[in-house]
Amino acid sequence: WQDEFTAIGTGALYYSEFTIDDVETYHPSDRFQTSTFWIIEADASNRLRLRGIDNEKGVVLVEYILDTPANPENRPYTVEKRQRASKPPVFGDGSSIKVSGLFGKYKATVPAASSTDGMPIVLYRAFVYDENGNEAASVWTLPRYYRAGEVKKVSLDLPKLEKGAYTVRVVAETAYGVRSDALETTVNAG
User: Fold this and answer.
1) pLDDT tens per residue across span 5-14
2) Cβ–Cβ under 8 Å, residues 66 and 50
3) Which is nearest to 37 in space by CA: 73, 12, 62?
4) pLDDT digits (tens, 9 = 90+) for 101-124
């Protein structure tokens, strides 16, 4: 985070938690096995190199270079600057939503999207609309971007749907809120 100053989250060596949409605290099911930390190097020119590490696998998850971060002109990681510089993630050609379930409980599964600018995809959101186009529900899930390993598909548990026809849209999102184009399908609940 960069705005009036630079702040770097420390990661977690045990019991990870995340804040979603600035209000909801999320504890992933693998929170006890997740261990991440930063290696931060500074050089004589006040340049910082940050590497986010998956401690379990010993793999670099992300790397950033900050040139003289004390200078307000050299802060590329403000939300506004990252949103302007970021490109939306993309789903591969032919990607679609697979919906499965019974008795009003459904799961939407999509192939993982790809980053187009090197920024990790940190969230997938599903929006459910009724026959009149009104939003009936929205849900999200994290794609385990905080652990090493390739994510091939992502599943989102949809809330119970009353009888009727629904449109489901799924998007992939970066940490700066830049969203992919939506995949879309219909579900006939009931």
Assistant:
1) 888 887 788 7
2) yes
3) 12
4) 877 689 999 999 999 988 889 999
Reported as a pLDDT band with limits 50, 70 and 90, residue 73 is: confident
Neighbours of 143 (CB within 10 A): 19
Residue 108 and residue 133 in contact, taking contact as beta carbons nearer than 8 Å: no
Cα 72 to chain centroid distance, Å, stands at: 27
| 113 CB burial (10 A radius; 0-12, 13-18, 19+) | buried
Secondary structure (H, E, C), the chain: CECCCECCCCCCCCCCCEEECCCEEECCCCCCCCCEEEEEEECCCCEEEEEEEECCCCEEEEEEEEECCCCHHHCCCCHHHHHHHCCCCECCCCCCCEEEEECCEEEEEEECCECCCCCCEEEEEEEEECCCCCEEEEEEECCCCCCCCCCCEEEEEECCCCCEEEEEEEEEEECCCCECCCEEEEEEEC
The Cβ-side half-sphere exposure at 39, using a 13 Å CA radius, reads 10
Q: Which residues pair with 139 in a beta bridge?
A: 126
Q: What is the overall mean pLDDT for the chain?
A: 89
Residue 149, amino acid: G
